[in-house]
Here is the input.
Amino acid sequence: MEKESINQVPPPFLVSYSITTKCNLMCKHCYSESVDQAAPDELSTEEAFRLMDDLSKWEISLLVIDGGEPLCREDMLDVVKYASSKGLRTTLGSNGTLIDEAMQASSQSLYRLTELMLKPMTHLGV
Ligand code: SF4
Here is the structure.
């Protein structure tokens, strides 16, 4: 996004980025029509970084990364860390089932998110 066009449009409070269509669950009530595979046209890691660059320049207040299940992407922590490095306040819309101790330990910001996501059971068994 060019600087000039960024200045012409005021930033929204929140941007929701559906980073993948893939999810490890199959909830009947799924709001996002998730499937068991990533869409072929999902942004690559580098493309996601460029999106973070644009959103940072746009000075949005909050970035929500969801899907699908965002933690199905192996580069998810890299994208979150990159977003944080750009000053983006970032949260993850996750069902929480793929969070393990190693993942918690690898990212302090994700660890804080984990505390918020430990009651995801409304996603399960419905
Ligand atoms: S966990 Fe969320 S994204 Fe995945 S199938 Fe359930 S509602 Fe959809």
Summary: The domain at 11-28+41-118 is CATH 3.20.20.70 (TIM Barrel). Strands lie at 14-18, 62-66, 90-92. The radius of gyration is 15 Å. Residues 114-126 have pLDDT under 50 and may be disordered.
